[in-house]
Design goal:
Length: about 375
């Protein structure tokens, strides 16, 4: 099949393009796409990309072709797209779905089509629409059962890649400290924007931490880039999960891999715990969940990593997550009820967690 052009915007997807894309993997049906409707999704959930459900109509029996797919493209906003291009996020995610997802121990949505254009920076994913699953919600939080499942599945996935020689073949997936220069460049503007958007939600104590963080970005990222390394999802939070239809079901599907990097796996643990629980509940569950992660690593063969090392990495990771949240979140739109609640929750949770864990011990100056 002739290489398809990579659309930059959702409206550039035509029925003919969608037909060819969906049949590129050898679908059994030859049905043609006659039309589709677009349902934007993810508003207020911290997604910077164009993300929409395409509900598809065919000219006949569509067989194993999907009735709907999730389309993901780079941001349409020029500022967000420029930042995403600096980090190489979208093309990195395409490589993840093409090369890592098929062998992953953690379930990901089925990939119907992927493409990236290095000349334009455009990229597209057509992913399984998980209509029968329950999407996680970082504002609503989750049950302890869901949290334990997320931690166990993460540990299983990361233990597979733990100091694996295969990591060296993933030249497209950077080690965490490679990002340091770009983050340092972006941080001052992003921080100023975030402080302005948060208004009184930005606590005085967190403001002090944010003002100090820029000078420690290289140091923090360097510590989390040292061996033992594994694959880090980079944004391992409830909004990026599909769970079973009930809180007791043992099902987890993880998406949004655009920030995947190589480094210390506790970054993902810290991201999840800080987002999943308000401060009071986080204090109750935190150590037990971190011990669960460490125990699951050991059960999957990881022996030379003490719980004390894990705890230090967890504390440093909280600062790194805040850096990430500033750099990405500073440019997001927090209009709307859910987005404004999410912003206020995040400020409250970072303030409490960084203080409780005495994370500022690791800051320079």
């Amino acid at each position: 099949m002739t290489q398809l052009p990579t659309p930059a915007h959702l409206h550039e997807i035509t029925p003919d393009w969608l037909t060819k894309a969906l049949q590129s993997k050898g679908a059994s049906s030859n049905a043609l796409v006659t039309d589709y409707s677009i349902e934007p999704i993810g508003e207020g959930k911290g997604f910077i990309n164009q993300l929409a459900r395409l509900v598809i109509e065919y000219d006949g029996n569509f067989g194993d072709l999907p009735r709907s797919v999730i389309a993901k493209l780079p941001p349409s906003d020029p500022t967000l797209k420029a930042m995403s291009s600096k980090l190489g996020d979208d093309q990195r995610e395409v490589r993840f779905y093409e090369e890592i997802a098929p062998q992953s121990t953690i379930q990901t949505p089925y990939l119907y089509y992927s493409a990236s254009d290095h000349n334009t920076g455009n990229a597209i994913l057509l992913l399984e629409d998980m209509t029968n699953a329950r999407q996680g919600d970082s504002v609503a939080g989750c049950s302890l059962t869901d949290a334990q499942l997320a931690i166990r599945e993460l540990a299983k996935f990361q233990s597979h890649w733990w100091e694996s020689p295969s990591l060296r073949t993933l030249e497209w997936m950077p080690v965490k400290d490679v990002e340091a220069k770009v983050y340092q460049e972006v941080y001052p503007e992003a921080w100023a924007l975030l402080v302005e958007k948060a208004r009184d939600g930005m606590t005085p104590r967190l403001k002090v931490v944010g003002d100090r963080l820029q000078q420690s970005i290289v140091q923090i990222k360097s510590k989390l880039a040292k061996p033992p390394r594994t694959i880090i999802h980079g944004d391992y939070r409830l909004d990026n999960f599909f769970l079973g239809t009930t809180s007791n079901s043992n099902s987890l599907v993880v998406f949004d891999w655009e920030f995947c990097v190589q480094g210390r796996g506790t970054f993902d643990v810290a991201t999840f715990i800080n987002e999943a629980f308000p401060p009071r509940q986080r204090r109750q569950e935190e150590v037990a969940l971190l011990r669960l992660y460490h125990r699951c690593l050991a059960e999957h063969g990881i022996k030379n990593y003490t719980f004390e090392d894990c705890l230090v990495d967890y504390r440093i990771s909280m600062l790194e997550i805040f850096v990430f949240w500033v750099v990405v979140g500073g440019y997001l739109d927090y209009e709307g009820d859910r987005a404004s609640i999410y912003l206020r929750n995040s400020c409250q949770r970072f303030d409490a967690t960084i203080s409780d864990l005495n994370c500022t011990e690791f800051l320079s100056g």
